[in-house]
Each structure stands twice: as C-alpha cells, then as structure tokens.
Write a structure and sequence with these properties.
Layout: E1 10-15, H1 19-29, E2 35-41, H2 44-54, E3 58-62, H3 70-77, E4 84-89, H4 95-100, E5 105-108, H5 113-130, E6 139-144, E7 147-152, E8 158-162, E9 165-170, E10 173-177, H6 181-187, E11 193-197, E12 200-203, E13 207-212, E14 218-222, E15 227-230, H7 232-242
Parallel strand pairs: 1-2, 1-3, 3-4, 4-5
Antiparallel strand pairs: 6-7, 8-9, 8-12, 9-10, 11-12, 13-14, 14-15
Helix pairs in contact: 2-3
C-alpha cells in the first residue's frame, strides 16, 4: 500500500505482559513508515486507560494477562473498540472467541514476519476504509463466570440501570453489562434507542404506544406487554420521534 493512500499515520498500541513479546512486536511495526507506536502496555488495565485516552487505530492485544485479560479489555471498551484489534497469543483455543469479540486477526505465537505482515496489511486496509465510515457497535460482550457471550444490539428490547451495571432485556433473557446509562446512550444509534427515564433506554422498534395514567404521567407500552415509566424530561423528544402530537401538558 502506498503511503499517500493514508492521510495520517496509523497509531498503534502494543499490549502484552511479556517484555520480550512487546519488544518483538515493536520491532516489526517500526519497519513500516506508515505506523506510529503510541505506547507499549504491560497490562490490560494499562491498555484500557490508554485506549480510552489516546484512541489508537490499531491494537495488538495479548489474550492471557493477569487480572485483566484481552477479553476483559474488549468487554469494558464496549462500543469504543479501536478500528482494528489483532489478538496475539500462544494459545489457539481462543481464536473463535476472539473473532466473535470483534478481532480482525489472530496471531498465534510463534509467527513469522510474513504472517505478521499479512495481518498488518489487513489492518491498514480496514483502517483506511473505516476512516470514511462512522461505526456503531453491533453487539455487546457479556462476561459471566467462566465464559463470554454476545448479545446482538438489534435483539435488545429495553435497558435499565442496575447499580454500576446496565441490564439488557432481550426477549425472555436479561444480561448485566458493565456500562453506565450515559455511556450506552452515547454508543447506541439514537434513531433506534431513546432514553425515556434516567434509568431506562428503550428500543423504539419495540414501542407499541404510550398510555396516560391517572396520575397524569405517561407509560411506554412495548410489544411484549412491558410497561415502562416515561419521565417528563424525555416525553416531548420521544413523542416527536414517534410522530405523536402532545395533547397533554
């Protein structure tokens, strides 16, 4: 790929708890003049903070790290995933989970220069293309004891605050996600998901109507029969979005 195809350098982050592994990746990356290494991180927690602050284009992410592994990092990032994530590990059993979590590629140690170059080229192509296209998450990673599962955002009916978590209601199932309501409101497509209460976000495709109660407050009625309180703060924006004239003030 010619350097003029990229308007700016690709900003990369290397994450591995082994110093030698970090050094090897950095050496390979420095061969490419289109790459700028932002930092080498020795832990998942360090990587999480750096990704949130520096917003790298490309992350080489180790899977197995103490306290906060590669999957923890992706789960906590949610919809703020970098444009390209390449997992780097000595264990092949994580490959399927890595791709399900949104990884672009999976480098199995030990790998040769040719394999690394193929992964890097894929990342460069994806990043170049993606710079023109705004991204929103298509699914959330839900971590429970011993496993990580994924919930398609299109399947979520409504979301409620649950202390330091958000509870995703999808059909007959519910899932706890380590994310605040304000973060979710920012990540989700506002054309589909709308805040209706300080503790509730609803999928507009599931809304059957609004009902005015005897107390003068509205409830949002969902297709599945669920009724959710609609606060006055969010009532008019919701009615406008649904094309409903406000005859009650």
């Amino acid at each position: 790929m010619r350097s003029e195809e990229l308007p700016t350098k690709i900003r990369a982050l290397v994450v591995d708890d082994e110093p030698l592994a970090r050094s090897n990746l950095a050496v390979l990356l420095r061969r490419d003049p289109e790459i700028e290494i932002l930092r080498e991180c020795a832990s998942g927690a360090e990587a999480l903070a750096e990704i949130r602050s520096a917003k790298p284009d490309l992350v080489f992410l180790d899977v197995q790290m103490a306290e906060c592994d590669g999957f923890d990092v992706l789960e906590m990032l949610g919809g703020d995933l970098p444009p390209a994530v390449i997992f780097v590990t000595a264990y092949d059993q994580y490959a399927v989970r890595a791709f399900e979590a949104g990884a672009l590629d999976y480098l199995l140690k030990p790998f040769d220069n040719a394999r690394f170059d193929r992964a890097l080229e894929r990342a460069k192509q994806k990043i170049t293309h993606g710079r023109e296209i705004p991204r929103r998450p298509e699914r959330f990673a839900i971590k429970s004891t011993g496993q990580v599962s994924f919930v398609k955002i299109s399947e979520i009916d409504w979301i409620e605050a649950a202390d330091y978590y958000a509870c995703l209601h999808a059909g007959t199932k519910s899932h706890l996600l380590r994310r605040s309501m304000s973060e979710l409101e920012h990540e989700l497509d506002p054309a589909i998901f709308r805040r209706i209460h300080r503790s509730t976000i609803v999928n507009l495709d599931r809304v059957r109507g609004l009902k005015l109660g005897e107390d003068g407050e509205y409830e949002v009625l969902l297709d599945n029969g669920i009724r959710l309180p609609l606060s006055r703060r969010y009532r008019k924006p919701l009615q406008s979005r649904l094309g409903i004239r406000d005859s009650h003030s």
